[in-house]
Design a protein that fits this description.
GO molecular function: translation release factor activity
Protein name: Peptide chain release factor H
Strand order of the largest sheet: 2-3-1-5-4-9-10
CATH class of the largest domain: Alpha Beta
InterPro entries: Pep_chain_release_fac_I, Pep_chain_release_fac_I_sf, PrfH
Structural class: alpha+beta
Radius of gyration: 27 Å
Number of domains: 2
Largest sheet: 7 strands, mixed
Helix content: 25-40%
Strand content: 25-35%
CATH architecture of the largest domain: 2-Layer Sandwich
Family: Belongs to the prokaryotic/mitochondrial release factor family.
Order of helices and strands: EHEEHEEEEEHEEH
Shape: elongated
Pfam families: RF-1
């Protein structure tokens, strides 16, 4: 099973971009613990170091629906802004969405058809005499490139493969960006008020819990006091 997931700050401010980077780290830790393979296939850096506007991840594993059930939706981080100390806002929201109906384009030399032809223009004694130029076509997408930089057919073939891979990857990225835009158009604002996860503090603890045990100690003291009265 494969899923493509986008973690995005949406149109949120710099604080949301910081939260996006933090959520990515926690998300990938859980992905590894879930024995799920992943590949980051697109990322848009934020306006400051260590921040992200969005990141898109390909997941491969079993029972991904159950794993993602606790992630898909809005994520809330509660804390004071690390960029604007006097800012009164304390709740910052980002979104985790699934990009459905989009399959990652695989690239393999087995899917390439090569054609050789004579080079055109200046280029040495082999020009127009030997078939050194190479045209490469990626059959699944129909994308093609032409290479005649070298006098060697082998070198031109290597160049053609490299250029074709870049072109096919670029095609996939454009499709991905369009799908991300379509997804975001359906979520012009990250849903607030009912986050699937809440984090707190600069250490980004999940669902922060008071570990002082003060409340528990008071309960025990009260029970002990009542037991003493009962004994008397």
């Amino acid at each position: 099973m494969e899923k493509i997931i986008q973690i995005t700050s949406g149109r949120g401010p710099l604080e949301c971009q910081w939260v996006t980077a933090k959520v990515l780290k926690v998300f990938l830790e859980e992905v590894k613990n879930n024995n799920t393979a992943y590949e980051i296939i697109h990322r848009e850096n934020g306006d400051e170091n260590l921040t992200l506007k969005s990141v898109t991840i390909l997941l491969k594993g079993k029972d991904l629906d159950a794993f993602l059930k606790t992630w898909l939706g809005s994520i809330c981080w509660t804390g004071k802004s690390t960029f604007r100390k006097l800012h009164k806002r304390s709740n910052w929201f980002i979104g985790v969405f699934e990009l459905e109906g989009l399959e990652k384009i695989s690239f393999s030399e087995k899917d390439i058809q090569f054609q050789t032809t004579r080079s055109q223009g200046s280029g040495g004694q082999n020009v127009n005499k030997v078939n050194t130029a190479v045209r490469a076509v990626h059959v699944p997408t129909g994308e093609s490139v032409f290479a005649q930089d070298s006098r060697s057919q082998l070198e031109n073939k290597k160049l053609a493969v490299m250029r074709l891979k870049e072109k096919v990857t670029g095609l996939y990225i454009r499709q991905l960006e369009k799908r991300m835009q379509d997804t975001w158009n359906n979520h012009l604002q990250v849903q607030r008020g009912n986050p699937v996860r809440t984090f707190s503090g600069t250490d980004f603890k999940k669902n922060y819990q008071d570990k002082s045990f003060k409340k528990q100690r008071n309960i025990l003291k009260k029970e002990l006091k009542n037991n003493r009265y009962d004994l008397n």
